[in-house]
Amino acid sequence: MERIKDHPVLQPEERGTVKFTFDGRECKALEGEVLSSALYANGIKIFSYHKKDSSPQGIFCANGQCAQCSVIADGLSVKSCVTPVREGMEVKTLRGAAKLPLGTCLQDFGGVEELEVDALIIGGGPSGLAAAAELGKLNVNTLIIDDKAKFGGKLVLQTHKFFGSVEDCYAGTRGVDIAEKLEEELKKYPSVKAWTSATCLAVFSDKKVGVLRGDKYCLVRPRAVISASGAREKSLAFPGNTLPGVYGAGAFQTLVNRDLVRPSKRLFIVGGGNVGLIAAYHAVQAGIQVVGLIEAQEQCGGYKVHADKIKRLGLPVYTRHTILRADGKKELETVTIAGVDGNFKPLPGTERTFKADTLLIAVGLNSVDEFQAQALEAGMNAFVCGDAEEIAEASAAMFSGKITAHKVLKSLGVMAAPVPQFWFDRLEVLKSRPGATRPPEAKDHQKTVYPVLHCRQEIPCNPCVTVCPKKSIKLSGDSIMSVPRFSGDCIGCFKCLLICPGLAVTIVDYRKDPKNPSVALPFEIGRGLVKKGDNVRLTGWEGADLGEAEVIDVKDFKAENTMIVVVKASPETADLAVSLKLYSAETGDRSPAGLARAEDETIICRCERVSLGEIRRAIRSGMRDLNQLKAVTRAGMGACGSKTCSSLLMNIFRSEGVDPKEVTAFTKRPLFVEAPLGVFSNVKCAGRDGEGTGWSGF
């Protein structure tokens, strides 16, 4: 069993176990756990074999957006990532065109309840929860739904502290804790109904929304609807991209941080945005070796403090590199990368191959905007917020939800005043891309104890300024994007160090020894990993090696889930030291050029296993209609409804010199999510044993 029992931030809950079988093998799961996590905890990564070519299939999104994790459970094909395990459940590998049992019969039709609300919020992530709270404050009859068992969206996957503004979006607080705060806030407002495990199936032309809550289907008629449905991960085209072990960074965080399952021993990451950089840090917290992270651009696109945080630990980050291929007999075994030129073309002779059992794809997100599009088409009073509107950080999503709620209040006649302009200005700041990186400033004081602020990039963040009891840390400019500076007195209270989301504050202390100062460093990798008396290697703000130092104390601030490692330093290194180097980079094996499988074999449509070559031939024949392309090649015809491959298909059109304006888009399916037909009339069925089984067997 690969479960995480010792984590520096997360504490496993006491839960009972249930037994189930997988292809006849007895397995154990935790109560309430979804099948995909339970299978990974039992060391199982292959969930199906594709009907087209018998290729092994594993997870990709672990978020219900694709269908790559499908299995047969008690005779039915289900998505394992959203299906809870039940005692005695019989689970089997989905093999080819499996014959499903038809041994159930119609027993009774149920009625479909209709519910009227002032506002319906689709999505219980940071933006949806923030919007619901604002509506609840003014007693608006609100229903917020989410298809997961717990509210919070991606916040429940985030163990790191958030950037942004303390007063606007809980900056300096861990994502998992923000999720709890937002959910707890809703309990204050009786007018807000909150449904978990409730999926929006469709928005209809009569301005009703179909919602499946558990096994009960109902229709909701809202006066206003807010799409706070978040985003889905982008896929990436390269040979071997569908091997079990190749999946999205969000799926990895779901396994590791939500379900405390250790899915990997050797991990490689594609993508240097915040998602990829954070996933690397989460991996080392979970005791997983990060073999490397690659980014095609000259610099990582995420916050510099995220990149520096992993570089300081010794994790290798390769910029100007791309993924060539992933290889393995049944599961991922190796990853091959190469440097790229100015046109992002691989440079012959730079190929390197690394052993890895997991490859994370962290190359961006696409908005889940189909709810909003259909609501507008139906003529509804429709609003959108968070990542469903624009991809940004969760801090911006929360403020976006607040603004959207006030737009709804105005549309409902509850408030007459428009949303203040300064709110929109503040949102733009929270959404800001990283600005300039300032060089470290020379020390301009002779204090005997003081903080050193190693955050030099302009990003929206102010926790250290807010928490300083002496008000000695101030922003260098008027904007929250300004870098912080120390000016004044310090009492060595560690508050700025403990709250910093980037682990970029250290405390230098000369009070006990004017010649050999101590340096307090933030540390949240693992308890017991570093002990008093150890000799450790220090690293600077960008990961430079500063030599060895002795650990003179380790303080554990359990309320903040952060440790402080105090080392003895020299005056020359005291102001430079930021972290401890824990890992050594591997060089990989040099690979001769031309080893990659034919590029045309790369799979574009995962559901139907349609290759790049097939797509190219269709485009070169003159096809400019995605619906025609689907009819000819089956690309986009699978269970996910083209959610995973549509953006890849458009990229191929561009690469073939076709203007996207010439391409006719897919006709959207009427349903957002697959559902048995019987749910729309709440059919009750009799199972093979004659007992009522609900609609699932119909």
* Overall form: globular
CATH fold title of the largest domain = FAD/NAD(P)-binding domain
Radius of gyration: 26 Å
CATH level 1 class label of the largest domain: Alpha Beta
Structure description:
The chain has 16 helices and 40 strands. It folds into five domains: 140 residues, Ubiquitin-like (UB roll) (Roll), CATH 3.10.20.440; 183 residues, FAD/NAD(P)-binding domain (3-Layer(bba) Sandwich); 101 residues, FAD/NAD(P)-binding domain, CATH 3.50.50.60; 132 residues, no CATH class; 61 residues, BFD-like [2Fe-2S]-binding domain (Arc Repressor Mutant, subunit A), CATH 1.10.10.1100. The longest helix has 18 residues.
Features:
alpha/beta, FAD/NAD(P)-binding domain, single chain, Ubiquitin-like (UB roll), globular, about 20% helix, about 700 residues
Summarize the structure.
By secondary structure, the protein is an alpha/beta fold.
Outline the fold blueprint.
Layout: E1 17-22, E2 25-30, H1 35-41, E3 48-49, E4 56-57, E5 70-73, E6 76-79, E7 90-92, E8 94-95, E9 105-108, E10 113-122, H2 126-137, E11 142-145, H3 166-169, H4 175-186, E12 192-195, E13 198-203, E14 209-213, E15 216-227, E16 231-233, E17 246-248, H5 249-258, E18 266-270, H6 274-285, E19 289-295, H7 304-313, E20 317-319, E21 321-327, E22 334-339, E23 352-355, E24 358-361, E25 365-367, H8 370-377, E26 382-384, H9 394-411, H10 421-430, E27 449-453, H11 463-467, E28 473-475, E29 484-486, H12 495-499, E30 505-509, E31 518-523, E32 535-539, E33 545-557, E34 562-568, H13 571-574, E35 579-580, E36 589-590, E37 603-605, E38 610-611, H14 612-620, H15 626-633, H16 646-655, E39 684-686, E40 692-694
Parallel strand pairs: 1-7, 3-8, 10-11, 10-15, 11-12, 15-26, 17-24, 18-19, 18-24, 19-20
Antiparallel strand pairs: 1-2, 3-4, 5-6, 5-7, 9-39, 13-14, 14-15, 16-25, 21-22, 22-23, 23-36, 27-30, 28-29, 30-31, 31-34, 32-33, 32-35, 33-34, 37-38, 39-40
